[in-house]
Amino acid sequence: MCFVCGRSNPVGLYMHFHDDGELQVVSEYTVPERYQGYPGIVHGGILAAMLDEVVARVSMIGDHHHFMMSVKLQVLYRLPVPVEVPLKVIGRIVRLRGRLGKAEGKICLPDKRVAVEAAMTLADVPQELLSRTHPRLLNWKID
Predict the structure, then answer these.
(1) Helix, strand, coil % (nearest 5) of the chain?
(2) Which carries the bigger pLDDT value, residue 142 or residue 21?
Protein backbone atom coordinates (compact mmCIF):
# COMPACT_ATOMS: atom_id res chain seq x y z
CA MET A 1 0.00 0.00 0.00
CA CYS A 2 2.99 2.36 -0.15
CA PHE A 3 1.87 5.55 -1.88
CA VAL A 4 4.99 5.75 -4.04
CA CYS A 5 5.79 2.13 -4.93
CA GLY A 6 2.84 0.05 -3.73
CA ARG A 7 1.07 -2.03 -6.33
CA SER A 8 -2.14 -2.27 -4.29
CA ASN A 9 -2.69 1.42 -3.53
CA PRO A 10 -5.53 2.66 -5.78
CA VAL A 11 -4.25 6.25 -5.75
CA GLY A 12 -0.51 5.50 -5.65
CA LEU A 13 2.23 6.49 -8.06
CA TYR A 14 3.27 2.88 -8.92
CA MET A 15 6.89 3.88 -9.46
CA HIS A 16 9.46 1.26 -10.53
CA PHE A 17 13.16 1.37 -9.67
CA HIS A 18 16.44 -0.16 -10.75
CA ASP A 19 19.93 0.17 -9.36
CA ASP A 20 23.39 -0.02 -10.87
CA GLY A 21 24.64 -2.52 -8.27
CA GLU A 22 26.99 0.06 -6.75
CA LEU A 23 25.88 3.57 -5.85
CA GLN A 24 22.75 4.64 -7.68
CA VAL A 25 19.00 3.94 -7.89
CA VAL A 26 16.98 5.31 -10.84
CA SER A 27 13.33 5.60 -11.79
CA GLU A 28 11.98 6.93 -15.07
CA TYR A 29 8.54 8.30 -14.32
CA THR A 30 5.85 10.57 -15.78
CA VAL A 31 3.66 12.22 -13.14
CA PRO A 32 -0.06 12.10 -14.08
CA GLU A 33 -1.93 15.43 -14.09
CA ARG A 34 -4.07 14.35 -11.12
CA TYR A 35 -1.01 15.11 -8.93
CA GLN A 36 -0.69 18.75 -9.94
CA GLY A 37 -0.59 21.66 -7.52
CA TYR A 38 -0.58 24.77 -9.65
CA PRO A 39 -2.19 24.08 -13.03
CA GLY A 40 0.14 21.92 -15.09
CA ILE A 41 2.81 21.73 -12.34
CA VAL A 42 3.53 18.70 -10.13
CA HIS A 43 2.68 19.30 -6.46
CA GLY A 44 5.83 19.77 -4.38
CA GLY A 45 4.72 17.13 -1.89
CA ILE A 46 4.57 14.54 -4.66
CA LEU A 47 8.10 15.46 -5.77
CA ALA A 48 9.33 15.17 -2.16
CA ALA A 49 7.66 11.75 -1.82
CA MET A 50 9.30 10.55 -5.05
CA LEU A 51 12.72 11.64 -3.80
CA ASP A 52 12.13 10.19 -0.34
CA GLU A 53 11.51 6.80 -1.93
CA VAL A 54 14.29 6.71 -4.52
CA VAL A 55 16.94 8.14 -2.21
CA ALA A 56 16.10 5.76 0.66
CA ARG A 57 16.31 2.80 -1.73
CA VAL A 58 20.07 3.26 -2.09
CA SER A 59 20.40 1.29 1.15
CA MET A 60 19.03 -1.76 -0.67
CA ILE A 61 21.72 -1.86 -3.35
CA GLY A 62 23.28 -5.29 -2.99
CA ASP A 63 20.77 -6.37 -0.30
CA HIS A 64 17.08 -5.99 -1.16
CA HIS A 65 16.16 -6.77 2.45
CA HIS A 66 18.16 -3.92 4.04
CA PHE A 67 15.42 -1.45 4.91
CA MET A 68 16.35 2.07 5.98
CA MET A 69 14.07 5.02 6.57
CA SER A 70 14.56 8.75 6.24
CA VAL A 71 15.16 10.66 9.45
CA LYS A 72 15.91 13.95 7.70
CA LEU A 73 15.00 15.02 4.18
CA GLN A 74 16.01 18.39 2.75
CA VAL A 75 14.44 19.31 -0.58
CA LEU A 76 15.45 22.17 -2.85
CA TYR A 77 12.98 23.06 -5.60
CA ARG A 78 14.97 24.68 -8.42
CA LEU A 79 12.50 24.62 -11.34
CA PRO A 80 8.78 23.96 -11.78
CA VAL A 81 8.15 20.36 -12.84
CA PRO A 82 5.40 19.95 -15.42
CA VAL A 83 2.95 17.05 -15.23
CA GLU A 84 2.83 14.45 -18.03
CA VAL A 85 6.55 14.88 -18.83
CA PRO A 86 9.06 12.01 -18.58
CA LEU A 87 11.35 12.55 -15.59
CA LYS A 88 14.48 10.83 -14.36
CA VAL A 89 14.57 10.41 -10.57
CA ILE A 90 18.00 9.46 -9.18
CA GLY A 91 19.19 8.50 -5.72
CA ARG A 92 22.90 8.16 -4.91
CA ILE A 93 24.82 6.91 -1.88
CA VAL A 94 27.00 9.48 -0.17
CA ARG A 95 27.93 7.30 2.82
CA LEU A 96 26.45 4.15 4.40
CA ARG A 97 28.12 2.99 7.61
CA GLY A 98 26.62 0.95 10.40
CA ARG A 99 23.01 1.80 11.05
CA LEU A 100 23.17 5.34 9.60
CA GLY A 101 23.73 6.78 6.17
CA LYS A 102 23.67 9.82 3.93
CA ALA A 103 22.35 9.94 0.40
CA GLU A 104 21.31 12.49 -2.18
CA GLY A 105 18.89 12.66 -5.04
CA LYS A 106 17.62 14.69 -7.92
CA ILE A 107 14.78 14.91 -10.40
CA CYS A 108 15.84 15.77 -13.93
CA LEU A 109 13.70 17.17 -16.73
CA PRO A 110 13.90 15.69 -20.25
CA ASP A 111 16.50 18.35 -21.20
CA LYS A 112 18.66 17.05 -18.29
CA ARG A 113 18.23 20.18 -16.16
CA VAL A 114 17.97 19.43 -12.44
CA ALA A 115 14.54 20.56 -11.24
CA VAL A 116 14.62 19.25 -7.66
CA GLU A 117 17.44 18.16 -5.35
CA ALA A 118 17.40 16.32 -2.03
CA ALA A 119 19.77 15.39 0.77
CA MET A 120 18.80 12.64 3.20
CA THR A 121 19.98 11.16 6.46
CA LEU A 122 18.86 7.52 6.81
CA ALA A 123 18.70 5.06 9.68
CA ASP A 124 18.04 1.34 9.77
CA VAL A 125 14.38 0.53 10.29
CA PRO A 126 14.10 -0.50 13.96
CA GLN A 127 13.99 -4.27 14.42
CA GLU A 128 10.87 -3.82 16.56
CA LEU A 129 9.02 -2.35 13.59
CA LEU A 130 10.31 -5.00 11.18
CA SER A 131 9.28 -7.82 13.52
CA ARG A 132 5.68 -6.52 13.58
CA THR A 133 5.46 -6.36 9.79
CA HIS A 134 4.48 -9.53 7.98
CA PRO A 135 6.38 -9.76 4.65
CA ARG A 136 3.15 -10.72 2.84
CA LEU A 137 1.64 -7.35 3.78
CA LEU A 138 4.50 -5.53 2.10
CA ASN A 139 3.51 -7.07 -1.26
CA TRP A 140 7.22 -6.72 -2.03
CA LYS A 141 8.34 -7.41 -5.59
CA ILE A 142 11.71 -7.15 -7.29
CA ASP A 143 11.44 -5.99 -10.91
Answers:
(1) 20, 40, 40
(2) 21
